[in-house]
Design a protein that fits this description.
7 helices, Rossmann fold, 210 residues, transferase, Uridine kinase
């Protein structure tokens, strides 16, 4: 196997990264692609948070990511080594983390909020994809997700959005939008548009790599 082709997928909260990624992965067989998600590299807080503590703790900063481990695991995959690590459960005491086994593959996908800000990672990406959505639409998606999946109140979600999410997006993500090869606007719930774009990009990669 030659050097893996590295795809970076970035975008703000509620931009549709997860949906695009799921559709994108369907265009490859499991032995053709592997995924490293920045979400699994949050530094554990180390204590059980109350809802009030969780509200004020800012997870939307690069310093909350164990970037050394993130880089190390990417390097291991590039050197054809399998990575084994624990899934991050977002400080949910009721969740049992899964053990993730990530095997090297010809296409390596690196996904997360700060992958473009971490220049040691960004400079190695062969293809950069930026998921984009208007603020009001992204906020609505974030509220739906955090209410259903994490049990947060709309008030808490909105506080984090105004004080953590948007300032971090403007400082650590938006400045790198212009350097991306593909900027995908995702302001509707029309899945067909994202599916079509994911197929188009995947086909280009397949022709380049396989």
């Amino acid at each position: 196997m030659n050097k893996p082709y590295i795809v970076g997928i970035a975008g703000g909260s509620g931009s549709g990264k997860t949906f695009f990624l799921r559709r994108f992965l369907k265009h490859f067989s499991p032995d053709q692609v592997c995924l490293v998600s920045q979400d699994d590299y949050y530094i554990p807080v180390g204590y059980a948070m109350t809802p009030e503590q969780n509200k004020f703790y800012n997870f939307d900063l690069p310093a909350t990511i164990d970037n050394d481990s993130f880089e190390r695991d990417i390097n291991d995959l590039l050197n054809k080594k399998t990575v084994v690590k624990q899934e991050y459960t977002f400080n949910n005491p009721n969740a049992t983390p899964k053990t993730l086994e990530i095997k090297p593959a010809p296409v390596l996908i690196v996904e997360g909020l700060f992958i473009l800000h971490f220049r040691n990672i960004a400079d190695r990406l062969d293809l950069k994809i930026f998921m984009d959505a208007d603020n009001d639409i992204a906020l609505q998606r974030r509220m739906r997700r955090d209410l259903l999946e994490r049990g947060y109140s709309n008030e808490d979600v909105y506080y984090k959005w105004v004080n953590h999410v948007v300032p971090s997006y403007n400082q650590y993500l938006l400045p790198y939008k212009s350097e991306c090869h593909h900027v995908i606007s995702n302001n509707t719930d029309v899945a067909a548009d994202i599916v079509k774009m994911s197929e188009k990009i995947a086909n280009k990669i397949r022709h380049s790599v396989f």
